[in-house]
């Protein structure tokens, strides 16, 4: 049985193993799309790759038909350059040399969700763009490393903010952030990417969280486009977005959407991986 603590869904070890199955589908889809993301390829083609991965795994999309209005029409969010998140894949949206594109993908296996995102450099990308994406990726892992049983929710937020600040002068997107995940894709708690540590719900074993920094080369402010989905930087500056789903367990973490379970990045930070991942 699932239990709840302060309206946050907690999972048993067996339920977390089921979420790992969804997470591996997400990891496979993101790897395939990353390989295919070349100049001239459309975001519709990337969406088709993700659909094939879902079909081959017998999984269901977390995104397709997600509540609107209008219902989301793709199985991925494909957000290029100044588009931060929730971009709609299209045959007319062609990747160009020098682009950064966020690819966000979710899968459901046996009723359990996995959700992750990567930012992909297309062709030859300028140094500032690479630095932006790397700062965001590093902040993701620093945020995950701060998710400790016994800590507080905003320890994650503060770790992301601190990491971004160490990397350079970047904007941290205002209002948007990570979320709980499990039997639904978006659940309590909401996880901002900035804030003071030591606040919010206590982190306990059985929580599963999607942690997702979003940063820019300029303003932290955004606007929504007329499609009622795409979120774009208000000043048109370049953006990056990285995400993983992570489980908190009594003996450590398990990054459910990372192929290696998080061993390389968390090991480098001295953070234990749960024996459940073995």
Keywords:
alpha+beta, 278 residues, 5-stranded antiparallel β-sheet, 5 helices, globular, 4-stranded antiparallel β-sheet
Can you describe this structure?
Helix content is 28%, strand content 27%. Helix 3 (127-145) packs antiparallel against helix 4. The model has no long low-confidence stretch (mean pLDDT 96). The chain has helices at 13-36, 43-57, 127-145, 153-167, 263-268; strands spanning 3-5, 8-10, 60-61, 76-80, 83-85, 100-109, 112-121, 171-172, 177-180, 187-192, 208-211, 214-216, 222-224, 231-233, 239-241, 244-249, 252-255. It has a five-stranded antiparallel sheet with strand order 10-9-11-16-17, sandwiched between helices. Strands 3, 4, 6 and 7 form a four-stranded antiparallel sheet that branches. The chain has a three-stranded antiparallel sheet with strand order 5-14-13, with no helix packed on it. The longest helix has 24 residues, at 13-36. Strand 1 (3-5) and strand 2 (8-10) form a beta hairpin. With 278 residues, it is α+β, with helices and mostly antiparallel strands.
Strand order of the largest sheet: 10-9-11-16-17
Radius of gyration: 17 Å
Order of helices and strands: EEHHEEEEEHHEEEEEEEEEEH
Number of strands: 17
User: Sheet with the most strands?
Assistant: 5 strands, antiparallel
Q: What percentage of amino acids are in beta strands? A: 25-35%
CA-CA gap between termini: 24 Å
Q: Which outline best applies?
A: globular
| Helix proportion | 25-40%
Structural class: alpha+beta
Whole-number average pLDDT?
Answer: 96
The helix count comes to 5
pLDDT below 50 for ≥5 consecutive residues: which ranges?
A: none
